[in-house]
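A favour, since you know our structure tokens better than I do. What I am after is a single protein written out in full by you. Could you add the entry underneath, on a fresh line?


***
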Amino acid sequence: MDVVLSHIVKRFGPLAANDDVSVRFAPGTIHGILGENGAGKSTLMRVLCGVLAPDGGEITVGGSAYARLNPEAAGSLGIGMLSQDPLDFPPLCVWENFALGGGPVLSRGQATARLAAVCARMGFVLPPDGPVARLTVAERQQLELARLFDRDVRLLILDEPTTGISPAQKEALFAVLRAFVADGERVVALVTHKLAEARELCDTVSVLRQGRLVGSFAAPLSTPAILASMFGSQAACAAATPPPRPDPVTEAEALVVVENAVIADEKVVLEPLSVAIRPGEIVGVAGISGGGQEVFLRGLAGIAPVVAGRLSVAGRELAGRPLTRFLDAAVHYLPASRMEEGLFPGLSLLDHVRLAFPEQRDAARTIFTERCVGRFRLTNQPDSRAARLSGGNQQRLLLSLVPDDTRLLLADNPTRGLDAASIAQIWDHFRERAAGGAAVVFFSEDLDELLDHAGRVLVFYSRALVADLRSGTYDAACVGDLMTGRVAAGEVRP
């Protein structure tokens, strides 16, 4: 199916999110859409799948031209999209969510069988009768991907599809995508910030910057050329050069002490674990979906209760204490699901500043200018609603609301779906926090990110802490084997 976007314009007030963009998605190809956050990538894809109406231009599908599409029309033409943030109904069961989406009405048995078939092909494990509310963000994204593959989609739009899946699942996904376009009739539009994945998978790449198309490249793809078109040559070099991995901190007195702690939430109870974290450390947490690492972070944040054992931060005993005690101990948590758990979609950015700094409500505009704009380069206006923020600006806003005196900063997938420049900015900030004496503990599904930024890695498998690895004693293969249970901690050799 040949799809052409011609001179697409999409405005939000004075902002041109897409400014005269023309792209052809040729049948039989995987077409990458790259650009920094706010470049207009997701907006262009939402125009294509009918979620947004363009203010100008034309969409041609199989030779037929349309001034705009709506979701029903796009679906009938065989266009489907996996959004970066899960779009589902948390109170419903997994199989009920799978059966939704405009396809034929399915019974429970039919939906369960079809879900099992797709999961077997993709390497996913999704319990059909469990409520979606109990799934992790990664599992919810897997469910949406499974639903799209079950439909007769001719143009498959994927917005950061490898977020939340393991390396093995990513390889399985890539194999499925290649098979999907192999008949020469179907096409994949892949929105991603991971240049390595684009080089590995894409036949063609289009690069957007500030709403405009600034470059088109055919395989074999050149990373320097793509980065230069996205950011300019100097910024490209900075974004492409990771900092040296930090050395582990071994001398300072422990800031966080966990002794024989059992952490539980609605889905998972962790095996008893003990660990100490010192000021100035940047600690990575590794594990596949459901391994227990998310529960560990939420336990340190006071969201998942410590039902046995001991947890203290800066000498304050916090096991069994309410969330307010964790906040008093200067613990701050950045969730993976930014809009659902971290922000209020209907409130303005200024409202978020007032909530974060209630004692300085009268100075909210000054705080916004100095922190949100000055320190974190947030580009939206203070009266804009949070729902209008791009993924990168959502994270910039959340970071700007973290108090300066935070001792323990916990981050669940802090760079999920972000471009290279935004990722570099976030890690600069985390290193500044650690240099100032805070401890930073983060979970990332990207093993390269763990290797680049963590001075120490805690590995979880099957709801247990199985390894505590110091810098210089591990590589990607080592961590991958531990988090998937292929080797036990005692079998790891420096």
Observations:
- The longest strand covers residues 15-25.
- Confidence is low (pLDDT under 50) at residues 234-240.
